Amino acid sequence: MYGGDMDDIGRLLLRLTLAILILFHGVSKVIHGIGWLEGMLQGAGVPAFVAYGVYIGEVVGPIMLLIGWYARIGALFIAINMAVAFLLVHLGQLFMLTDNGGWQLELQGMYLMTAVALALLGPGRFSINRR
After folding, report:
1. Cα 69 to Cα 111: distance, rounded to the nearest angstrom
2. Burial class (CB in 10 A: 0-12, 13-18, 19+), 100
3. Which of 38, 55, 71, 90 gives 123 a disulfide partner, CB atoms 3.0 to 4.6 angstroms apart?
C-alpha cells in the first residue's frame, strides 16, 4: 500500500466511526420520538417543526457518510446538528470540566470536529462518489 491508500483508509475509518456513533442517536430519536426536543425549541422561541432537522443530522447525514454518497454534505449535516446541540442543549457545559479533568463536552466536540474534518477532506476513494 502506498500513502494514498493509507489516506483513503484513514478517511474511511473516520467516516464509518462518526456515522455509526451518530446514527445510534438518530435511531433512538426515530424509536422514541423528538417531543422533548420540540418542547426545548419552543422554550427557546424556535418553531417546533425545526426539531425535525435532527433527523437530517442524525440519520440522513450518517447514512451518507456510511456509503460515501455526497459524504461532504453528510458531514456538514452532522456538523450543523452538533453546533445546534451545543447551543440548545450543552451551552451551560461549554466551559466545564469533569471530575477527572476532561472537558464535559469532549464527546460532542469530537463529533463536531470530526464532521468538520470530513467535510473538508472528503470521503476518499472508498466511497460511492470516489472523491
Report:
1. 19
2. exposed
3. 71
Q: Which residue has the cell 478517511?
A: 11
DSSP letters of 90-109?
Answer: SGGGTT-B-TTSSBTTHHHH
Q: Say if CB 84 and CB 61 are below 8 A apart.
A: no
**How does pLDDT run across 28-78, given as a tens digit for each residue?**
999 999 999 999 889 888 899 999 999 999 999 999 999 999 999 999 999
| Residue ranges of E strands in the chain | none
- Per-residue model confidence (pLDDT) at position 2: 66
CA nearest to 103, candidates 116, 115, 90: 90
In the block, which residue shows the cell 475509518? 13
Q: Which amino acid is at 47?
A: P
Give just the sign of the alpha carbon dihedral 115, 117, 121, 125: negative
- Strand partners of residue 103: 97
On the CB side of 11, CA atoms within 13 Å amount to 26
Check residue 56 and report its DSSP letter: I
Contact 13, 21 (CB under 8 A): no
